[in-house]
Amino acid sequence: MQHQSAQLRRSVLYVPASNEKALAKSATLACDAVIYDLEDAVGPEEKLDARERLRDFLNGGDRPHCEIVVRINALDTIWGTEDFLAARAVKPDAILLPKVSGPRDVLDADAALDETDAPRNLKLWAMIETPRAVLNLGPIAQLGRDPAARLSCLVAGTNDLAKETGIALTEDRRYLAPFLFQIVMAARAGGISVLDGVSNDFRDLDAFESSCTEARSMGFDGKTLIHPAQIAKANAVFAPSPEAIAEAEAIVAAFADPENTGRGVISLNGRMVERLHLEMAQTLLERAGTIRLKESGETDR
Ligand SMILES: CC(C)(COP(=O)(O)OP(=O)(O)OC[C@H]1O[C@@H](n2cnc3c(N)ncnc32)[C@H](O)[C@@H]1OP(=O)(O)O)[C@@H](O)C(=O)NCCC(=O)NCCSC(=O)C[C@H](O)C(=O)O
Ligand SMILES: [Mg+2]
Asked: Is residue 25 lining ligand 1, measured as CB closer than 6 Å?
């Protein structure tokens, strides 16, 4: 089993659906995915307008070519059902469910999509941002293994998690880290992708880069973002480095050497290399190739 999904999700930008300028800008940006937000970025007085704005924008001519996700208000709020129907109607790639408590929330959204005859490739993403979601991570993520369910990504909601638990959001995220690891582990067990939470201090790009590096080391596929200035750093950090590509190429070449045919383990530059490392190298090179294609403009995603 490989740990990273084929879909690139290095940089996933939240765009408040209430913000006309940000909506327009979103179509011009180099992020891998956009989350149009109807939830916490939109004040209660703006909710109805934001929904209409988003509908007009995504039905208009400037729809971005990257992966498109709509975050709705929770289905048990006064806005939830209308948001859900509006999101379904604008044909996103996924609907992001906020403040999920357990698998029931995802299954209910799944059933509601089935009732509208939604295509199977319309996926659900789930925010992990409440204590109950953390306690129910296993059963939530396991839905990723259910061919009838649409869950394809977990998103850490670190601001709400801090609010709900009292966990301090320090720059080094030392108190948050144990829960972030659990989110990654659950997503991998469920075979779905997983995104780190946002960095609120969007002007400090050095701190942001460190946070991306840490998230990559923790196993996240990418980072959720709040500002366009964060995109380039996330794209760079979550892409395989030139050194990692060179190492992967060396591993592939070593196993292709007729001398090593059929061998399970070889020695390469003083290190043990097994076939599992070959698989990892192949996945890394595939990802590097996908990024190259995307950045050469030959594909949008
Ligand atoms: C954080 C901001 C409010 C800052 O806004 P502002 O001060 O206006 O930024 P700039 O002047 O530097 O903006 C420069 C240009 O970039 C556009 N812009 C800014 N942000 C975005 C964006 N997110 N998407 C698209 N475009 C954006 C501006 O319009 C300017 O454009 P132009 O003038 O044409 O050059 C703002 O960045 C912002 O609102 N960010 C998103 C906030 C958000 O979505 N929050 C909710 C998600 S975070 C969360 O809830 C996670 C989770 O649930 C949890 O619990 O942790
Ligand atoms: Mg939140």
From this structure: yes
78 lies in the same domain as 59? yes
On whether residue 132 sits in a domain, the answer given is yes
The atom number, within ligand 1, closest to the CA of 16 reads 44
* CATH number (domain holding residue 92): 3.20.20.60
Q: Which residues surround ligand 2, an ion (CB under 5 A)?
A: 129, 157, 160
Q: Tell whether 85 is covered by a domain.
A: yes
Say yes or no: CB of residue 240 within 6 Å of ligand 1.
no
Report the number of distinct structural domains present in the chain: 2
Say if 160 falls within a structural domain. yes
Alpha helix (H) ranges present in the chain?
20-26, 47-59, 80-89, 103-115, 131-135, 137-142, 158-165, 177-190, 205-218, 231-237, 242-256, 275-295
Q: Does the pLDDT of residue 1 top 80, yes or no?
A: no
- Asked whether residue 2 is domain-assigned, the answer is no
> Over the stretch 216-233, which tens digit does the pLDDT of each residue have?
999 999 999 999 999 999
52 versus 296: the higher-pLDDT residue is: 52
For the Cβ of 22 lying below 6 angstroms from any atom of ligand 1, the answer is yes
pLDDT band, very low/low/confident/very high, at 148 (cuts 50, 70, 90): confident
Is pLDDT larger for residue 247 or for residue 5? 247
CA–centroid distance, residue 217 to ligand 2 (Å): 23
Q: In which domain, by residue range, is 112 found?
A: 11-237
Q: How confident is the model at residue 66 (pLDDT cuts 50, 70, 90)?
A: very high
- Ligand 1: centre distance to CA 227 (Å): 5
Residues 106 and 210 in one domain: yes
Q: Is 198 in the pocket of ligand 1 (CB under 6 A)?
A: yes
Q: 40 CB less than 6 Å from ligand 1?
A: yes
For 32, 109, 272, 293, the CA distances from 54, given in Å and listed in that order, are 19, 20, 53, 29
**Which residue among 237, 252, 287 closes a domain?**
237
Rounded distance from Cα 98 to ligand 2 centre (Å): 7
Q: How far is CA 188 from CA 29, 98, 137, 194, 283, in A?
A: 29, 20, 11, 8, 15
- Condensed to tens digits (0 to 9), the pLDDT of residues 166-176 reads 999 999 999 99
